[in-house]
Each structure stands twice: as structure tokens, then as C-alpha cells.
Design a protein that fits this description.
By secondary structure, this protein is an alpha+beta fold. The chain has 3 helices and 9 strands, in the order ββααββαβββββ. The protein has one domain (about 30-150): Nuclear Transport Factor 2, Chain: A (Roll). The strands form 2 sheets. Strands 3, 4, 5, 6, 7, 8 and 9 form a 7-stranded mixed beta sheet that branches. Strands 1-2 form a two-stranded antiparallel sheet. Helix 1 (about 35-40) runs antiparallel to helix 2 (about 45-50) and helix 2 runs antiparallel to helix 3 (about 75-85).
Amino acid sequence: MCLTTRMVGDADGPALVWPPPPVAWCTGPMSTLGPRLAQAIAAKDAAAVRELVADDVDFRGLTPGRAWEGTGPDALVEVLFGSWFEEADEVRALLDVTTGAPVEDTLRVSYRMALRTPDGDFTAEQQAYYRTHDDRISHLRVLCSGFRPAAGLPD
């Protein structure tokens, strides 16, 4: 059987090329900045976060109850450790760090943490999309699951 490229769709709707064009898999080196950012956040290491981001990093984040934004390392650190992961919040474990193939110039990392707060044990996951310039994160977008009640983590 021979598959040919054809346009699918009606005159009023969007067209779809079928079969899709061949996929070019990313075989080049992936940035380690995303996993290093995840580790710095889990360690609540403000200095490490500042080292990983550009002086003019453009940051936006979305948590279940609010949108956040700022420019520069200090604004990012204030959101991360002044609002999202407060002093009383203990990151007990970095459960998972996963990177994905880039979307053109935008890289992705997801990370999941086990947390203990004054209100109990929780799990949170964040998806971070970022761009780099001169080996630092210059553009950062983070989506957070929120703190979800944990099924259990051994003491």
C-alpha cells in the first residue's frame, strides 16, 4: 500500500496533511539547565537559582489560584521561596525530573517533589518551559499542579 500526502478537511475548516511529514528527532545535546533548576528549587537554594538564570530573566508562572510574573533573579527567587515554597515547607524528595524534546528554541523540564508543610504531606509537580542565552535561562514559564495531598512517604 502506498501512502501519499493529501490535504484533509473541508473548505471552511483547517486542513491536515496526511500522512504527516517525517519527524526529525532531536539527537543533539540537551541543556542541563532545566534539571539543574529543578534540583536548585528542590534544595531551596536561592544562590543556585540565581546562577542559572539571566540577569533579565523573564518569568511567568501559573499556580491553581494565581498568575505570577517578574523580571530578574530576585523576582524569581521571591516567588519561588517567598510564596510557592515557604520557609516552613520542607522538600523531602525530588521524586522525578524529566526533560522533553525542544519545541524549536524552547526547552522543557518537569519535576515532582514530595513536600511536608505545617498542614501535612503533599506532592507537587511543575512543568517548566525555558529558553536560554549565553548558557543561562533567559525566559521561564512554569505551570504548577499545586500541593496535592500525598498518599504517603516513609518517615
